[in-house]
Design goal:
alpha/beta; six-stranded mixed β-sheet; 10 strands
């Protein structure tokens, strides 16, 4: 089963004041850590939706073998629109897709591997009774989104 990912790094108006994808984390950045964790878990392809600071983000992740799509209307749309842009692109390339915003880098490859064992139409990690990211969506569920 082929599993891909859509990472939203467009900087929608509902985002926090700092541009999360480029924030430092350890010796890297949020966006690089997310991509590297996904890749190390066998996720391919990884589609990154950019918008705000698109040129900078795309240059920053250029060596990581990801597909970058630009949401030109990121300032006037919701994150949902960027997710749809990514899902429309990746839908025919994978059997299931991880979907996540580029602001939660602290997930482990073990979490990804355990989620990939699920046969549910959609799955997400749960900690202390609260759902989190990333969300794993079956290809069959994409049209209804």
């Amino acid at each position: 089963m082929r599993t891909g990912a859509v990472v939203v790094a467009a900087g929608h108006k509902s985002s926090v004041s700092s541009f999360s994808p480029m924030l430092p984390i350890g010796d890297s950045t949020v966006i690089r850590r997310i991509i590297i964790t996904l890749k190390r878990s066998g996720i391919d392809p990884v589609v990154v939706i950019t918008g705000e600071q698109g040129d900078e983000v795309e240059k920053h992740i250029a060596g990581l073998r990801v597909i970058c799509l630009r949401n030109q209307n990121y300032g006037h749309t919701q994150m949902y629109n960027s997710i749809c842009l990514g899902l429309n692109y990746i839908e025919d390339l994978c059997d299931r897709v991880f979907v996540l915003p580029a602001k939660f880098p602290m997930f482990l490859p073990d979490t990804i591997q355990r989620m990939m064992g699920s046969r549910a139409m959609a799955a997400c990690p749960v900690y202390d009774g609260k759902r989190g990211h990333p969300v794993l969506v079956s290809k069959a569920a994409i049209p209804s989104l």
